[in-house]
Amino acid sequence: MLASINQSKAAESGTIPIGQMASLTGGLAVDGIEHKNGLEMACEEINAAGGILGKKLEPVTIDSKGQTAEEVTAAARQLIDRHEVHAIINGYNVGANQAEYDSIADAGIIYIHYNTSIGHHEVFESDPERYTGIFMADPAEYYYGVGLPIMLDRIRKKGVWKPENNKIALVTGSLPYSIVISNAIKKTAPKYGFEVSFEEVVPVPTTDWGAVLNKVRAQNPAVIANTHFFPADLAQFQIQFAENPTNSLVYMQYGPLLKTFSEIAGEAARGVMSSSVIGILPDEMGNEFRQAYWKRFGKDAEADPGASTYSEMYQYALAAALAGGTGEPGNYEQNRKIADNLRRFGYRAPFGTLRYVPKYNAAIPYPTVSDDPSLAMPHLLYQITDPKAEVPKKLIFPEPYNEIEFSVPAWFS
């Protein structure tokens, strides 16, 4: 489609700077580097197809380090003031809590991110006109908490898991992101016959889980849900749990989906469940992307976070080309045309359908909110099946995307 649109503009010259704030150093660099890779891969492919109306893309990534509000806002201002980027195509900066929004809204450029934050909904709804060009390309973290009891209920109803009780023990990371997820679990669990019988908030980072695990074991819960998301920390949690396990399902939010978790946890990882709203689907499109990504960056690269910025860039390029071009800082009229196009059509990405709900300028999940998989992004539940495999995880929920059925972990007596 881009190549066809570009044919009449092939003689155009010039470049389009595209910005990104990503953690290239620090604990979240495991994803930040892949966010950078995904953006650069998309720009290379789009440039090979003629760019956007004949103009080539130039990606510029600024290190957002620890993702504090100050670091992310400073990076955004640098991209706008020094590099004059026409758009910011981002992964996540979970610690900024929307602090960067005002600087970007003042510049009037398009900003697409995967912050996975219910705070985005709240800020956007407070002034849709001001924030019209700011989009969240995945569902809010809140839906992780809503989705977990739903997924557990589906497994229980199939009869493949027969819990000894209805208790959920919550271990909550101290970041607002993790707290929102835990609060949603507490709110939703009773609707599906579960009871949150224990919760403890742990500092970030955490590697010594002995004290909290002793309290959890005393509960003997049916499910242990850990909403901390740093993969190396979670690997230590699982190693220490496996030393004296209870008959509990272990669910950890997002972190175990990265190879680092399985590499550290080893055999202790087998059977752990985890979920994502931006995971590559095990279908034709997803598998082709994963292979192309590995060919470009090597088999050790994490294709799932790379797919997020890769897909955002393509959707933005199509929206801008159909609008007649990109818009530099201060070009409010042109950027509004692009924003309208982003809201107007969905984009089938390697992780499902990327479609923005105008009320929030954000994606919504299937099946937690929408029962139509063609109109929403699937909330994916995985189980670690082989820690040594090229892809350690397998998708167990939801249909029609799942690869295998859930199996009871080997640590159950």
TrEMBL record:
The record ties this protein, via InterPro entries, to:
BCAA_transport, Leu-bd, Leu_Ile_Val-bd, Peripla_BP_I
Whether Transmembrane counts among this entry's keywords is no
The Leucine-binding protein domain is annotated at: 15-361
* Pfam families per UniProt: Peripla_BP_6 (PF13458)
**Entry keywords, A to Z:** Amino-acid transport, Signal, Transport
Q: PANTHER family from the xrefs? A: LEUCINE-SPECIFIC-BINDING PROTEIN (PTHR30483)
What family is reported? Belongs to the leucine-binding protein family.
Supply the name of the protein: ABC transporter substrate-binding protein
Species of provenance: Methyloligella solikamskensis
